[in-house]
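User: For my dataset I need records formatted as: sequence, then structure tokens, nothing else. Please produce one.
Assistant:
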Amino acid sequence: MKNILIIGSTGQIGSELAMHLRSLYGNEHVVAGYITGAEPKGELLESGPSAIADVVNAQSIADAVKKYNIDTIYNLAALLSVVAESKPRLAWKIGIDGLWNILEIAHENKCAVFTPSSIGSFGVDTPHDMTPQDTVQRPRTIYGVSKVTTELLSDWFFHKYGVDTRSVRFPGIISYVTPPGGGTTDYAVDIYYYAVRGERFTCPIKAGTRMDMMYMPDALHAAQMLMEADPTRLKHRNGFNIAAMSFDPEMIYKAIKAHKPEFEMVYDVDPLKQSIAESWPDMMDDTCARQEWDWEHKFGLEDMTTDMLDKLTKKLL
């Protein structure tokens, strides 16, 4: 891995992944790809190169790949689950038509491609407890349908053309850097902001609804680690289950309350978010990732809560 293009570098994951990879490979070797209207700012802009890289404009991707001699593409362009349900055609255009553009360019220029999948790729018929790596995937959201298609299309380009495609199925990702942006698991980010500001939190997810979650540092490490993995060890490619923690709203509330006894939470369940949450796994079995590329998470609920509250206190107060 010598020169990297991050597509969607100003998004929830991309903004932090770009800075993480720059710290590992050098600022000049990681290009922050963006679309018009979502230009890099601050440290992301100042610390390294950036270029227009719009997945629906294949030429912009090809130009960036050639200009910076790119050999690895991290494709993070997508609409999050709730937003995608309200804009299904746009979700497909970005997630699938955009991916096709990237994979064709990767084939032509011999690039490796990372395109994340999600717990959203599973559906109500999938086993929810320790969801297997290989199991039924019949999602009922356009977000989930596009993620399953992402996995299959990436696999097809690998088997048909030898494009080095890899991905993980991300759980809900929690971060203190970027605010929530329309995902079903966003409540688990929002709740920390409310706690630090001393405000009562209204939870849109029903008590007892468990979902897979992961702290952003582990998610960044997983993406980078998989792309560095020995390809001869990979029996799976698109996409690997990865897991770190599983909790319901009451569990995260109690974890925060241990630090902030005055914190209050009430419920006002959002039917759309709840229906999506109930179709997703409680916890994925990530044995294959651990065996094939030595995946291991570092943060559990307690460690994450301590760090989130500390970092957000410094950020907000």
